[in-house]
Design brief:
Blueprint lengths: L18 H15 L14 H17 L2 E4 L3 E7 L2 E6 L2 E4 L5 E7 L4 E10 L5 E12 L2 H6 L4 H18 L3 H5 L3 H16 L6 E8 L9 H70 L1 H18 L3 E5 L6 E5 H10 L5 H34 L1
Helix pairs in contact: 4-6, 7-8
C-alpha cells in the first residue's frame, strides 16, 4: 500500500505509511548497498538483509549499553545470572548486558547509626541513653549477601551491647566519670556480637551522647552532679597546693639538715679544741697551780664582764656594794669624741680616776679570791 496522496479518495484517507512498505523500502536500500537488487518474490515479506541489519543495530545497542563506571570511593560486585562472579575496582568497565549485573558499594564514606532508649543501670535506676555508631563497609560482598539487612543487624547488636554495658554500670558513673569507659566497653561488645555474622562492616567510632535521668528526678541528679564536680575541683586545688608547698618544704628540710650537720661539726671542733686546750693547760697547772688558777679566774671574769653592762662588787666583804655602770661609761667614751677638747680632757681625767679605782678594786677582789683559794 502506497503513501496516500491528497488527490486519492477525495483526501479523506490520509494516514501513516504502511509498516510493511517502510521495511520493504529499507530492505531494498540495504540490498542495493550490498549488491542485491531483487525484491522478495512474495512482494510483502522481509528479506534476510533487513533481518541482518536489524540484528546488527541491536548488537551495537547491546554492546554500548554494557559500559559502566565505578567511582573512586566505590567497589563493584559483579553478579552473573544472580551468582557472585567477581569484584571490580574504580574506573570504566564493560559487562554483557542481561548476563552480568554490577552493584556499586561505597567503602570509604563513614555511615552513622543511632541507638537510644530508657535502660536500667546496675543500681536499678532508669536512665535515657543515646549513642551514635560510626561505621563503614570493608567487604562489599559480605555486606550485600551475608545478611538480609546488615544495617538492621548492626542496630540490634548496638542496642544489645549498650543495654549490657549500662546494666553493669552504676548511675553515677554513667552520668559523670565513667562515660569514657562505657563508650569503650560498648564498642568492644558490638565487635564481639557482629564478628560471627561477617557483615563486612568496621566500627570506626562510638559516640556516647550525654545520658539523662527521667524528668521527674532530673533536678536531684543535677545537684548530685554539681556536688561531684565541686569535689573534683577541690581535689585538683588540693593537689595543686600540695605541689606548690612540697618544693618549699623540701627546701626547708635540706636547710635544716645542712644546719644540723654544721652544728654537729661545730660542736665536734669545739670539743676537740677544748680537749687540746686542756691537754696544753694541764702541764702548766701541774707546774704552777697557784698562778694557773689565778690566770684562769681572771680570764673567766674577763669573759663574764665582757658580756655584762652592769657589775656589782662587794669591796669589803660587808653589806656595802659597789655599782659599776659600764654601759654609761662606754657611752660617755663614745660621746666624748664629739665634745670640745676641754670637755674631753676633763672627761678623760674622770675616766682615768674611775678606771684606777676600778682596777684597784679588782686587784683587791683578786687578792681576796686568791686567799680564799689558798685556804
Amino acid at each position: 500500500m502506497a503513501w496516500n496522496e491528497p488527490g486519492n479518495n477525495g483526501g479523506k484517507d490520509q494516514g501513516p505509511p504502511d509498516l510493511d512498505e517502510v521495511i520493504g523500502n529499507l530492505s531494498k536500500k540495504f540490498n542495493s548497498l550490498f549488491g542485491g537488487g531483487k525484491t522478495p518474490s512474495n512482494g510483502g515479506g522481509v528479506s534476510s538483509g533487513a533481518i541482518f541489519f536489524l540484528l546488527l543495530i541491536l548488537a551495537a545497542v547491546w554492546a554500548v549499553s554494557g559500559f559502566y563506571t565505578i567511582k573512586e570511593a566505590e567497589r563493584g560486585v559483579v553478579l552473573r545470572f544472580g551468582l557472585v562472579e567477581s569484584q571490580v575496582t574504580p574506573g570504566l568497565h564493560w559487562k554483557p548486558t542481561f548476563v552480568d549485573t554490577v552493584i556499586p558499594v561505597d567503602i570509604e564514606t563513614s555511615r552513622s547509626l543511632a541507638a537510644a532508649g530508657f535502660m536500667l543501670t546496675k543500681d536499678e535506676n532508669v536512665v535515657r541513653v543515646e549513642m551514635d555508631v560510626q561505621y563503614r563497609v570493608i567487604d562489599p560482598k559480605a555486606f550485600l549477601f551475608s545478611a538480609v539487612s546488615p544495617t538492621n543487624s548492626l542496630s540490634q547488636a548496638t542496642d544489645s551491647a549498650l543495654r549490657y554495658v549500662v546494666g553493669h554500670t552504676s548511675m553515677d558513673d554513667l552520668l559523670t566519670t565513667g562515660r569514657e569507659l562505657v563508650r569503650q566497653q560498648t564498642q568492644v561488645e558490638i565487635n564481639k556480637i557482629i564478628t560471627p555474622y561477617n557483615l563486612g562492616l568496621e566500627i570506626v567510632d562510638v559516640n556516647f551522647l550525654p545520658a539523662r535521668p527521667p524528668e521527674e528526678v532530673k533536678g536531684s541528679f543535677d545537684d548530685a552532679i554539681a556536688a561531684q564536680e565541686d569535689e573534683e575541683r577541690y581535689i585538683r586545688e588540693a593537689e595543686a597546693y600540695a605541689l606548690s608547698i612540697e618544693p618549699h618544704a623540701r627546701g626547708q628540710v635540706r636547710r635544716l639538715e645542712q644546719e644540723a650537720r654544721s652544728y654537729k661539726q661545730e660542736q665536734i671542733l669545739r670539743a676537740t679544741g677544748e680537749v687540746a686546750r686542756f691537754s696544753k693547760l694541764l702541764p702548766q697547772y701541774q707546774a704552777a697551780k697557784k698562778v694557773t688558777r689565778e690566770r684562769i679566774y681572771l680570764e673567766t671574769i674577763e669573759s663574764v664582764y665582757a658580756n655584762s653592762n652592769k657589775v656589782m662588787l662587794d669591796v669589803d666583804g660587808g653589806n656595802n656594794m659597789m655599782y659599776l655602770p659600764l654601759d654609761k661609761l662606754m657611752s660617755q667614751q663614745t660621746s666624748a669624741s664629739t665634745m670640745p677638747s676641754r670637755v674631753i680632757s676633763a672627761g678623760a681625767a674622770a675616766l682615768t680616776n674611775s678606771a684606777n679605782q676600778t682596777n684597784e678594786t679588782l686587784r683587791g677582789y683578786s687578792r681576796d679570791a686568791s686567799r680564799q683559794g689558798r685556804n
